[in-house]
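Objective 1b: paired records.
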Amino acid sequence: MKTLVFAGVSFALSAVLFFAGPWIPAFREFAESGVWPAVAFGYAALSVGLYAWTARAMAGSPRAMVNALNGSTTVKMLAVLTAVTSYLLAGGAFRVQFALGLFAVFAVHSVWFVAAALRTSTGEKSS
């Protein structure tokens, strides 16, 4: 799968999450803050960058592919952990909503990342 296709779908997923936020009553106030779009679309940008790295590694050896997938997973997990810890220590508003929203974005993008990586590694053509 080409990185541009992956990027388009990633940002579309983030847009769906972004626009779904205000529809959840307990999440509405946080979704209307300026932090929510940064979380949703910032994570999409991170995911696209890591996918580009992984896609280049898939063209190489199997070991490079495994290292890139493991490295991408590590970077994403540490980024989420750092963001949540920093936000909590800074005393940001809507701390629970921030943590749960970031986890939802992480989960959705992780499923998409793995599906795209598997599709690319098996040689399937994107439609």
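Objective 1b, second protein:
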Amino acid sequence: MKAARQACAVVVVAACSVARPLCAAGTPPIVRVYVAGSSEAVSGSRDAIQELCSRSNVAVVVRDAAGADEALLATSRSPGLAEAYVDLRPGTPPRVVVVDAETRQDLERRTLPEHASLEISIETMAQVVCSAVESSLAARAAAPPTPARASEPASRPRPAPAERWESRASVFASAVNFGAGFRAGAGLALGVSASRAPVRLGSFFSVSGFPATDVEGAGGAASFGLFGARALPTLEWQVSSSVVGFAGVGLGADWVRIKSERPPPGAVSNSPGSTIDPMACGMLGLRLRVAHGVAALLALDADLDLARHRYLIESPDGTGQPFFEPNRVRPVALVGLSVSLGSSRETSEARP
């Protein structure tokens, strides 16, 4: 009788030992994926990842990141196998970041092609995530068991660098009407915008020059040349993935030089020299992406001369006759090419 009881105890212990790993194996590890993008991008990502990762026997949970950036992974502490952040927002390069849910180390970090359609980006993203999940499962299965250690307070990892601002250099041709028809000129500009938000602040600094051209009036002729500089705070908005609109209002100055070329009969030749005029300006324009980091620049500008000038022809008897008066309001058109100079990144440290 005692031998029978001992045999039964052995059978029960053996059954429990076998059942325990089977029960544990029946609970698939959890993979959480946060998708930043439109509702179509979130739902499409959910279908693609769950279908592709089904062969790995993992539970995939796809959530809307609600516009959050990659730093979302640093604040998440949910148990599971892995976590991923997918950026499918319009106007930003598609990105995938997969980290280990326990160690928070990168399993995969990849930037996808910018010009691909949303469907192709979703399919590629799903393959990257599921491939990283399979590699993590294989690595855990091959790793030897480690002895349990006393729990230590884990230090919070630093979030990935965040872009603070982006700068661009531009070269452009321009045309302006000073009051004697449109004149052609050229210039250089430097643009700076804050982050990659759909609506953002920026600035536009430019210098431009117009070669001396002849103006005629009352039988006389003179050459008129100008060199100008402008500084405009701007507001930018992402119209689409390849189009950015901007508008700005600012101030500047024009260095104007006029030189007498041919006085009219009976008049005295006297060149008034040069002046520096304060200017107010407003600009409305577009940047159209033509390649990675390169965009076409199209803009319309309106300049207001804050110091009015009128040039006269002086006769020998001391009387003056109007010769040329520059427009106080001058329409300007700009066409050029803008090249990205890169962006500044800031790494913020999380507090313990």
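The CA atoms of residues 166 and 342 lie 6 Å apart. The helical segments are 2-25, 39-52, 72-75, 118-142.
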